[in-house]
Amino acid sequence: MLLSLACVFAAIVATQAPKARALPVALSWWALSFPVAALTITGLRIWHAGWAGVFHTGLGVALLALLVVIVVARALRLGLAIAARKICAPA
């Protein structure tokens, strides 16, 4: 049940991702990585528990790779915004 719920939240994030790319950098961006992280952890725990087949194992590894890409991209973009003093600036 939790795996299905995590898939729903990940689908919601996936539909919102193109819109989020057009927005200015914000600290709240990190919230978009949480559903992907939850789905990754769930997939890897299913694999670790021995319940997974080839599909779940591949899904867990693919989601881990996707999560790493998302976190690195967010960190780089946030670092550039901090260097340009666009974060926590008075409005």
What gross morphology would you assign? Answer: elongated
Summed over residues and divided by their number, the pLDDT gives a mean of: 81
Number of helices: 3
Largest sheet: none
Please provide a written account of the structure.
10% of the residues are buried. The longest helix has 30 residues, at 54-83. 75% of the residues lie in helices and 0% in strands. It has one domain (2-83). It is elongated and about 50 Å long. Helix 1 (2-22) packs antiparallel against helix 2 (33-49). The chain contains three helices and no strands. It starts with a helix and ends in an 8-residue tail after the last helix. The mean pLDDT is 81. The chain has 91 residues and is mainly alpha-helical.
Short description:
With 91 residues, this protein is mainly alpha-helical. 75% of the residues lie in helices and 0% in strands.
